[in-house]
Amino acid sequence: TRLYAGIVTSEKELEFSDHAGKGVWIQVADGSAEINGIQVNRGDGLVIEESPTLKIKSPAEAELLFFVSET
Fold it and tell me: I want to staple 44 with a disulfide (CB 3.0 to 4.6 A). Which of 40, 50, 56, 59 is the partner?
């Protein structure tokens, strides 16, 4: 498992694509964000398995953790 941490700031859209063909667990450490159209808030987790690119935006600053499966 690889771990990435990121901060998304308001007015920016982040694209995450270092997980092609692998599952990714996203944990919202702080703030809120929209990931591929799904609203998530502090403490929420989200599993994405079949999306080549994640599109992430936030109305304010959000801290996210990405756990990427190696298999």
Answer: 40
Find out whether 34 and 57 touch, Cβ atoms under 8 Å: yes
Distance CA 21, CA 30 (A): 27
Q: Residue 29: helix, strand or coil by DSSP?
A: strand
* CA-closest candidate to residue 33, choices 3, 67, 65: 65
pLDDT, tens digit, for every residue of 37-51?
999 999 999 998 888
Question: pLDDT tens-digit profile of 1-15?
Answer: 889 998 998 877 888
CA distance 6 to 54: 13
Tokens of 12: 């920016």
